[in-house]
Write a structure and sequence with these properties.
By secondary structure, the protein is α/β, with parallel strands linked by helices. The chain has six helices and 13 strands. The chain starts with a helix and ends with a strand.
């Protein structure tokens, strides 16, 4: 049972004709993009799409979707994306795919946000999944040292060649191995106050609906707002 495909297909049913749709990044979002493209081909939907990464943009264009830059569109009607962890009050950690900055920009410019995930992403407390923090390369070593002193257990994200991973915006990602985040909103603000931090993977009060599948193939839809 492919849980990622199940939620991707389900999320695609929320897309309507003449919408501007934000397309997320990651292995689960990939199934959603394919499902949206299938609907466009079969139903003749007229969509404008905005991508959250170069990887998603290439996939969407290869599938024949009309992709425009965020600057070319007004409000985004709906953004569908994956999530790495989701708490009971619908706060989340995102950025496992390295696109957290663009994902958050697109999400905050959207009328509605849907997250898609398998049931293992539902957690009692955020933090077991390493929290990504996108940082400017200049001075990143000092930020790393600051994070270490605060007990955040940081590590640079590396690419396949073992070099520091670079985001589409040319930034580094420092993953924080926190285990438990007791006060996500407080931590989110503290990280934003650090000079050199561009964005973090805590998505606070952003999602409207969460679509989850379990190993039995059952789908649940939770309304966060």
């Amino acid at each position: 049972m492919n849980q990622k495909k199940l939620v991707g297909d389900e999320a695609a049913t929320f897309v309507e004709d003449n919408m501007t749709v934000g397309l997320g990044t990651g292995s689960t979002a990939e199934y959603m993009v394919k499902a949206v493209a299938k609907r466009v081909k079969e139903e003749g939907l007229q969509l404008t799409c905005v991508s959250t990464s170069t990887v998603t943009e290439k996939l969407a264009k290869d599938l024949g979707l009309n992709v425009k830059n965020l600057a070319e569109v007004g409000t985004i009607d709906l953004t569908i994306d994956g999530a790495d962890e989701i708490s009971p009050d619908y706060q989340g950690i995102k950025g496992g795919g390295g696109a957290l900055l663009f994902e958050k920009i697109v999400a905050t410019n959207s009328k509605k946000n849907i997250w898609i995930a398998d049931a293992t992403k539902l957690v009692d407390t955020l933090g077991a999944f390493p929290l990504p923090v996108e940082v400017v390369p200049f001075g990143s070593e000092h930020l790393f040292a600051t994070f270490s002193k605060k007990g955040y257990q940081p590590s640079y994200r590396l690419d396949a060649e073992g070099n520091k991973f670079k985001t589409d915006a040319g930034h580094f990602i420092i993953d924080l191995h926190l285990e438990k985040i007791e006060e996500p909103k407080k931590l989110a603000q503290a990280l934003k106050n650090e000079v050199g931090v561009v964005e973090h993977g805590l998505f606070i009060d952003i999602v409207d609906q969460v679509i989850v599948s379990n190993e039995d193939g059952e789908i649940e839809i939770f309304h966060a707002k």
